[in-house]
């Protein structure tokens, strides 16, 4: 099976995809006719030093970096230009993809043997590709210094067994966000837990804040929810898990744990909150991006799928002026929340061409570790470093809180066997509850049955 799958990756085409928010064809073809440089820097991983002959690779990128001058992909082109100053023998073709359409384009590309050489993404997809033998292991480019400077939890999200398939770069805990300006205008700032260092709060305190918005700012929707597509699923599952003081999966990720009585009651409350106009209407047909758009338009007081990374990327997307502030999810009893980490990193598709694989690793190493561009790139993502030794990058209260909130980080379910299938069952069950087709408990129990079967099948397939 491994040989057959690697054979499928032997023909790697260059698919011309559109950039996010702009017309198709915005592709960078940065190149240089100069002779390859003779780089003898011993600090560079040995595995990346094999790409000395002219080689061409394709980099597909979600908008992982903040747009420069409002142009999606412009910053990535600057990365490539700087990379080519040190590696003129490697031509990098950049293709920007969107979070909305990108996943399906990737599926089509993989199925048609036109996958990119390198990609910046997250564990949810990368680890699934790794389990399917579609990626090249990156162990040979991870030095002992890097290995020891990144927490074991992040390496678990980046690996399948002992093989590292994602080079982790940036992180931030996923949280909620609140339009602080709305609460200032209605004189209800005291209802937010901003005077507490940890900003933790209870379900009852959260509901009081929602009711204040409904009463004093009738043109603003108190809070949001969504269930249209898989994107942003971490927001809804963390919201429910914390409201119900539950976990999404159990400790060893071998079974679903979200179908508790408390989590079911929380889902029932969300359904009722929609009827009571405390939560956005039509959530069953809204995607995560739709809800965040309402937040950026100033029409929503709370949004569920946020982080320091998204806060930075959304600066240019705000339709009105307001201050967005990070908050942890409220818990039923005010206990410490469990926050899933956003984790961004890069992976290399195994297309059977060792020169392309080596060149792709060189690009990753430059993006993550170049003495100048490594830090610059990290800041441009708007995220925190995965490395324990790199802190205090931002002189901003919200970033300082995001760094503090890393203490609440829990393991992400993305490393579970069968996760790619597990997530497909989540939103349909939420939709059933939202549209009155099931109670909260019925929906969560149905999800658990389907997800547990997917986990069992995935484990069996790996034996």
From TrEMBL:
Keywords tagged on the record: Cell membrane, Lipoprotein, Membrane, Palmitate, Signal
Family matches, as Pfam families: SBP_bac_1
Endpoints of the signal sequence: 1-25
Chain intervals for the UniProt region annotation (Disordered): 29-50
SUPFAM superfamilies the UniProt entry points to: Periplasmic binding protein-like II (SSF53850)
InterPro entries: Bact_solute-bd_prot1 (IPR050490), SBP (IPR006059)
Polar residues bias locations: 29-40
Annotated protein name in UniProt: ABC transporter substrate-binding protein
Lineage start: Bacteria, Bacillati, Bacillota, Bacilli, Bacillales
């Amino acid at each position: 099976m491994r040989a057959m799958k690697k054979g499928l990756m032997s023909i790697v085409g260059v698919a011309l995809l559109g950039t996010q928010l702009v017309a198709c064809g915005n592709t960078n073809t940065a190149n240089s006719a100069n002779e390859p440089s003779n780089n003898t820097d011993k600090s560079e991983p040995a595995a990346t030093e094999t790409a000395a002959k002219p080689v061409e690779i394709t980099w597909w990128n979600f908008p992982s970096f903040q747009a420069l001058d409002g142009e999606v992909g412009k910053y990535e082109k600057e990365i490539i230009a700087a990379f080519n100053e040190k590696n003129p023998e490697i031509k990098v073709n950049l293709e920007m993809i969107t979070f909305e359409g990108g996943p399906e384009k990737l599926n089509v590309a993989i199925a048609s043997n036109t996958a990119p050489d390198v990609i910046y993404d997250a564990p949810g997809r990368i680890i699934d590709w790794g389990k399917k033998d579609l990626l090249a292991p990156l162990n040979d480019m991870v030095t002992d210094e890097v290995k020891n400077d990144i927490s074991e939890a992040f390496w678990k999200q980046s690996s399948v067994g002992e093989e590292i398939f994602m080079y982790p770069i940036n992180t931030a805990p996923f949280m909620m966000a609140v339009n602080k300006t709305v609460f200032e205008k209605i004189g209800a700032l005291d209802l937010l837990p901003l005077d507490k260092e940890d900003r933790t709060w209870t379900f009852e305190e959260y509901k009081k804040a929602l009711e204040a918005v409904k009463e004093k700012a009738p043109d603003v929707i108190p809070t949001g929810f969504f269930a249209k597509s898989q994107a942003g699923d971490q927001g809804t599952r963390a919201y429910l898990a914390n409201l119900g003081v539950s976990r999404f999966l159990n400790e060893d990720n071998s079974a679903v744990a979200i179908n508790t009585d408390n989590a079911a009651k929380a889902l029932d409350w969300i359904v009722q909150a929609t009827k009571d106009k405390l939560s956005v209407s039509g959530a069953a047909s809204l995607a995560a991006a739709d809800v965040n758009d309402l937040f950026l338009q100033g029409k929503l007081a709370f949004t569920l799928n946020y982080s320091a990374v998204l806060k930075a990327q959304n600066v240019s997307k705000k339709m009105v002026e307001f201050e967005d502030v990070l908050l942890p999810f409220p818990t039923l009893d005010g206990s410490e929340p469990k926050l899933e980490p956003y984790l961004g990193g890069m992976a290399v598709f195994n297309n059977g061409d060792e020169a392309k694989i080596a060149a792709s690793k060189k690009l990753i190493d430059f993006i993550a570790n170049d003495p100048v561009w490594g830090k610059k790139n990290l800041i441009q993502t708007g995220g925190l470093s995965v490395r324990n030794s790199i802190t205090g990058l931002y002189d901003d209260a919200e970033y300082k809180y995001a760094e503090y909130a890393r203490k609440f980080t829990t393991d992400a379910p993305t490393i579970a066997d069968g996760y790619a299938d597990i997530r497909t069952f989540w939103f349909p069950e939420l939709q059933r509850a939202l549209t009155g087709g099931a109670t909260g408990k019925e929906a969560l129990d149905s999800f658990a049955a389907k997800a547990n079967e997917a986990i069992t099948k995935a484990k069996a397939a790996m034996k």
